[in-house]
Design brief:
By secondary structure, this protein is an alpha/beta fold. The protein is 13% helix and 29% strand. The protein contains 3 helices and 12 strands, in the order E-E-E-E-E-E-H-E-E-H-E-H-E-E-E. It has a 7-stranded mixed β-barrel with strand order 4-10-9-7-5-11-12. Strands 2-3 form a two-stranded antiparallel sheet. The longest helix has 10 residues. The structure holds zinc ion (ZN).
C-alpha cells in the first residue's frame, strides 16, 4: 500500500509573510453570496515568488526561459529530504557529507520550517552558500528545495541563483517541511503555468518512498 501524500505547501492568504520588497499577498472577495451576489468570487493579488513557489531562469538571467518551460520531470519524481544542522549556512562540507548524486532532487529541511508559524519575515534564515551552489552544480543535482523564501543568502542572492539557474538546476522555495522526516520521497510540484514568468506559486506534495 502507498503512503499518504503530505501537503508541504504554505497556505496562501492575505497578509502572509513575503520576501522584503516583493508585493504583499491579498485575497479579496469581490463578489459574495452573503451580499446578494450570484456567486462568491475572489481576486488574488501577489508576486510570483509568494508562498511555496518555483524560480525560473529568467528571474536572474535576462535571456533565460520562463516558468512554463521548466521540464515537469524536474518537479515530479523521487526526491530526498535531508536535514541540516548548520546554524546558518549550508556549505560545501555539509553538502559533501550528504553525497548528492547526479539527477537528484534534493530538499533541505532546516530550522527555517519553524518560521512558518510567524507572519514577520525572518532575516536569519538558513541558506545555501554560493560555493555550495557551485558544488551542487558540479555534482549534477537536478532540483533543490528549501524551507524558506530564498535558497540564497541576501548578500549573495544573485550569484547563487544565477549559478543554479544557468546550470538548469530547478529551485523550489518556501516549502513547509515541519511534518516531514528526512528520507526518500516521491514529489509532485506543480507551479502555475504562467506564460514566460520568472516564477510561479506551486502546490507541492510528498509521499514517503520505501
Ligand atoms: Zn523565488
Amino acid at each position: 500500500m502507498n503512503e499518504a501524500w503530505i501537503d508541504v505547501t504554505v497556505p496562501v492568504r492575505s497578509g502572509m509573510v513575503h520576501f522584503p520588497g516583493d508585493p504583499p499577498i491579498e485575497v479579496t472577495r469581490v463578489l459574495e453570496l452573503s451580499k446578494g451576489d450570484p456567486a462568491t468570487v475572489s481576486r488574488l493579488s501577489l508576486g510570483v515568488h509568494s508562498g511555496t513557489h518555483v524560480d525560473a531562469p529568467v528571474h536572474f538571467i535576462a535571456d533565460g526561459y520562463g516558468i512554463d518551460s521548466i521540464p515537469l520531470d524536474d518537479l515530479i519524481g523521487p526526491a530526498r529530504v535531508v536535514a541540516t544542522r548548520d546554524p546558518r549556512v549550508i556549505d560545501v562540507p555539509a553538502l559533501r557529507a550528504l553525497e548528492p548524486r547526479a539527477g537528484e532532487r534534493l530538499l533541505f529541511k532546516t530550522r527555517n520550517s519553524n518560521f512558518w508559524s510567524q507572519d514577520e519575515f525572518a532575516a536569519d534564515y538558513v541558506y545555501l552558500s554560493l560555493e555550495g551552489a557551485r558544488f551542487l552544480v558540479e555534482r549534477g543535482v537536478r532540483t533543490v528545495g528549501i524551507d524558506y523564501l530564498s535558497i540564497a543568502g541576501t548578500h549573495e542572492s544573485a550569484p547563487t541563483h544565477t549559478t543554479l539557474l544557468r546550470a538548469g538546476v530547478c529551485i523550489i522555495e518556501a516549502l513547509d517541511l515541519r511534518a516531514i522526516e528526512p528520507g526518500p520521497y516521491e514529489m509532485i510540484c506543480l507551479p502555475l503555468r504562467l506564460a514566460g514568468a520568472d516564477g510561479a506559486p506551486a502546490r507541492v506534495a510528498l509521499r514517503r518512498h520505501s
